[in-house]
Amino acid sequence: MALVLKKYLRLFSILVKTSFIADLEFRVNFSLRIFTDILWYFMQILSFEILFNYTPLIGDWDRYQMRVFLGVLFIVDSLYMVFIQENADRFADKVRKGELDFILAKPVSSQFMVSFQKIATASFTNLLIAIAFFLYTVAQLEGFQWYRLFWFFLVIPTSLIVIYTSRFFFSCLNLIFVKSESVQFLWYNCYKLGLRPDSIYFPTVKLILLTVLPMSFVASVPTRMILEPPNTYLICWSLVIGPLSLYLSNIFWRYCLRFYTSASS
Amino acid sequence: MKHWLKRNLAFARLGIQTNLEYRFNFFIDAIVQPAMTAGIEIFLWFALFAATNTETLNGYSKESYLAYVIWAAFVGRIAISWMYEHMMMDEIETGSINAIILRPMTFFEYYLSQLLGYKLVIFLFSSLVPLSIVLYFGLPTALNRLPLVALLIFYYLIFIHAMSFMTACLAFFLNRVRSFTLVKNFTIYIVSGELFPLDLLPTFWKKLFLNMPFAAGVYLPVGYLTNRISTELFLTGFINISIGLVVVLFLSYIIWRKGLRSYSGTGA
Amino acid sequence: MSPAIEVKDLNRVYYSYKKSVGLWSSVKGLWNRQHVEKVALSDISLSIPSGEVIGLVGANGAGKTTLIKILSGLIAASSGEVNVLGYNPFHRRNEFLRKISVLLGQKNQLWWDIAPVDSYQLLMSIYDLDVNKSQKKIKELADILNCTHVLETQLRRLSLGERMKMELIGALLHDPQILFLDEPTIGLDIVAQTSIRNFLSAYVKDKKPTIILTSHYMDDISKLADRLLIISKGRLFYDGSIDKFTQKSVQKKRLKLIFENPTKNAIRISDDVLIMPGTKNLDLEVEPTKMAEIITQIAQFQSVQNISTEEIDFEETIREFLKTQQ
């Protein structure tokens, strides 16, 4: 087990290094990626700041709490950008061009190789920016108790797992349908549900977002760990749903592989 | 002239034909995606009005915002170009553009006509959704303005295509230029008024954005359709697009010329 | 009559930047890049009369694709004069483009997601062709190529050979005066190759277009071309008839023999061929005229399990030819 883990860690570190070299090659792209994300952060901040000019609360959060929410969102999103996005974007291409053949023929977990072949090194910069923004928003909170960061860190892996598995689920559909780029937009729309605080949704929708389509875990739940006293149910549930989603994603991956016919000619 | 029209109609048909070939994609593109966007935004505005406990926000009712949000999601989806911009970039990056520029037609018109054809079908299909929603819930919409609004949107699409063309031409000089699309379209998302009605912005920004051609993509057509803005303001959209079009076409012509000269016709 | 293609002192240089390996040099490459110049074509002068079929040959990277790109107007020459049908090709005037056609064996020019007939419709509008005439022509060409049955299937569902036939019809639809064929038979099986070769040969006799043809297959060139151009390292190396070329470089075939048992003793076949003891597989380069003689000779000494002959790769012949000239 430890040996397997070591192998994958080594593999991962090589992938990081090669990704870095590859990314530097395209320097304009490198800086543009950083810039795009900053623009996206700006968009999110702007939309809430403007709305707060007209209302004291959105859902049950005020302007300052909403900023913390955005800080959490940016951290999670930049992690997603670093580790997941590019691989998922390329997935459809890999299937169409038959590259998946090579991956399947190698003696490592195909899900791992498909999911983590490329690291977007440029987005590390955004991670730093996101962390800085997050710390700033937290420092602005009145009477913030720093120990809550512990609960925050406890649920962050679940947050990433939820993003990863949901995106991966939609990627897998590429194996079943040809030319399903649009399916990826569908994922983005699901993700968008997580980009808003879950308190704005009606109760039934809220319940769905905590269970079947657990997008609340993207940012709302981690934010609650910071803004509110620890909620035992929520913490326990997040520790269950993370591993569960990973397990289900692997089953689904194997199921979808049965539809895969390598691209001929 | 007649010949020019004939081949461009053929391109428009190609745009329609290739997109309808993949029905599933088309359905998601035209219906599901804007519907979901609208759905999420609607929640936000409900929550907002619930929190403020007022009848109006910045002078407009809840119904007015809902109508705006629903139309904006659909119009915003139409008045943007992702796919064809990426296709143009691909052609330049892979060198398959060779097959196009060696035919007696222009790269610009070839993709413009495809885009317009494709957007026309999307428009016809997808506008049925907001139309039925606003009619069913009685949300404020001036339907008699729809033809004029459609005209502005399609004029705007020519401008958007010119922007796409200019962005795609960067692929002559740089590798992997898709990030430019992202930056550009994100910016358009804000300044066109798809994110929120531009009148919510502080005066300075509002004025600035209203004087750019991008407002003609979402804010002007949707604002006009939902009785938010006056006819005069709406009509400025045509002027702003025209000015923008001249500028962008001039710039892209220069980039295109320069690009072709430095181009080595990639690959074998 | 003025020549279809006239080229004088043509040069073409490419610029790129040097990339060294390793992480640190990648980081350094962010601000500091070394640019390098590469000469793709130098001092090419040519005159091609209308109606001639030119076989353009050279190793990979020799510059033949660059030459085709310049002649068709895709890229500009760095210096020199290029005149094709009275036009400067790089201006890409519509009148000029209507008169030429480019077919690239490795790339699709027809539309992937629609059927060839629909693609042809598009081409008719692009080239402003008469619909009835063109349809008749499509039918004719498809009949000859024996592929009428796939005209209405989406391009992406066709086999490589069928696709190439479809591309060929598309390229000929507007009766081009000059036809650029870049590897028209690459990747095809022998049957498809021969069928396309025969078709082109008949087409040339009938319509007399000017053709610039590149191919890795010796047979394509020898069967179709009137005149051979060899490019090496960006320079025009040989310009003349194929017969003269074949006289100069002796064409050999590869003879492969597998013996039932390894040879026990050394066997001398001729002055320059000696089979060593213990040989099981034999691989010889032989002149076609001497083939039979050599086989009979060997068979006298050794029982043979299997005999096969192969064309020596055209590139190889060329390389050998170029070596002898140095």
Question: What's the arrangement of secondary structure elements?
Answer:
The complex is a heterotrimer of chains A (265), B (268) and C (326).
Chain A: H1 2-25, H2 27-52, H3 63-96, H4 100-104, H5 110-115, H6 123-140, H7 148-176, H8 181-194, H9 203-210, H10 220-227, H11 232-257
Chain B: H1 2-21, H2 23-52, E1 56-57, E2 60-61, H3 62-78, H4 83-94, H5 97-101, H6 107-126, H7 128-137, H8 146-169, H9 178-191, H10 203-210, H11 219-225, H12 231-262
Antiparallel strand pairs in B: 1-2
Helix pairs in contact in B: 1-6, 2-3, 2-6, 3-7, 3-11, 4-8, 6-8, 8-11, 8-12, 11-12
Chain C: E1 5-18, H1 23-28, E2 34-48, E3 53-57, H2 64-72, E4 79-84, H3 94-99, E5 100-104, H4 116-127, H5 131-145, H6 160-172, E6 178-182, H7 190-207, E7 210-214, H8 218-224, E8 227-232, E9 235-240, H9 242-248, E10 253-259, E11 267-270, E12 273-275, E13 281-286, H10 291-301, E14 304-311, H11 314-325
Parallel strand pairs in C: 3-7, 3-8, 5-6, 6-7
Antiparallel strand pairs in C: 1-2, 1-4, 8-9, 10-13, 10-14, 11-12
Helix pairs in contact in C: 5-6
Task: Kindly describe this structure.
The complex is a heterotrimer of chains A (265), B (268) and C (326). Chain A has 265 residues and is an all-alpha fold. The longest helix of chain A is centred in the N-terminal third of the chain and has 34 residues, at 63-96. In chain A, 75% of the residues lie in helices and 0% in strands. Chain A has helices at 2-25, 27-52, 63-96, 100-104, 110-115, 123-140, 148-176, 181-194, 203-210, 220-227, 232-257. In chain A, α3 runs parallel beside α7. Chain B has 268 residues and is mostly helical. Chain B has one domain. Chain B has helices at 2-21, 23-52, 62-78, 83-94, 97-101, 107-126, 128-137, 146-169, 178-191, 203-210, 219-225, 231-262; strands spanning 56-57, 60-61. Chain B has a two-stranded antiparallel sheet. In chain B, α4 packs parallel to α8. The two termini of chain B are 35 Å apart. With 326 residues, chain C is of the alpha/beta class. Chain C has 2 domains: 5-248, 3-Layer(aba) Sandwich (Rossmann fold), CATH 3.40.50.300; 253-325. Helices cover 36% and strands 29% of the residues of chain C. Chain C contains 11 helices and 14 strands. Chain C has helices at residues 23-28, 64-72, 94-99, 116-127, 131-145, 160-172, 190-207, 218-224, 242-248, 291-301, 314-325; strands at 5-18, 34-48, 53-57, 79-84, 100-104, 178-182, 210-214, 227-232, 235-240, 253-259, 267-270, 273-275, 281-286, 304-311. A 6-stranded mixed beta sheet of chain C has the order 5-6-7-3-8-9, with helices on both faces. A 3-stranded antiparallel beta sheet of chain C has the order 2-1-4. Chain C has a 3-stranded antiparallel beta sheet with strand order 13-10-14, with helices on one face. In chain C, β8 and β9 form a beta hairpin. Chain C starts with a strand and ends with a helix. At the A-B interface, α2 and α8 of A face α2 and α9 of B.
